[in-house]
Amino acid sequence: MPIRMCLGCRMRCEQDALVRLVAASGQVIVDEGRRAPGRGAWVHEDAACVQRAIRSLGHALRSRGLDATPIAAWAARLAGDGHDRKTETTMDN
Question: How far apart are CA 17 and CA 87, in angstroms?
Fold first, then answer.
């Protein structure tokens, strides 16, 4: 299983434990199928990680002026649900 680093907390873990974000039409969106073209950034499905990652998205996706509103709304929904996949599936090393 490929290892990826969370853009929010910088923790390395298996790809299955992370969600892929991509730039599409000037917005950052969740790539649920993990097959969208272009550069991707990986983040835990955790509101705190997503909020920290939003600041770094332009650099990580090598694109300026991206609208992160959809991702911020997604993070707010995660925070409201109390959902935290980061503690459920992480690597030991």
Answer: 10
Q: How many domains does the chain have?
A: 1
Instruction: Return the CATH number at 67.
Output: 3.30.1230.10
Residue 84: its pLDDT value, please? 59
Least Cα distance to 22 among 68, 55, 91, 65 occurs for 68
Residue 92 lies in a domain: no
Q: Is residue 93 part of a domain?
A: no
Taking only the tens place, the pLDDT of each residue in 9-47 is 999 999 999 999 999 999 999 999 999 999 999 999 999
**Residue 89 and residue 16 in contact, taking contact as beta carbons nearer than 8 Å:** yes
Per-residue pLDDT tens over the stretch 47-86: 999 999 999 999 999 998 999 999 999 999 988 876 555 5
Is 90 within a domain? no
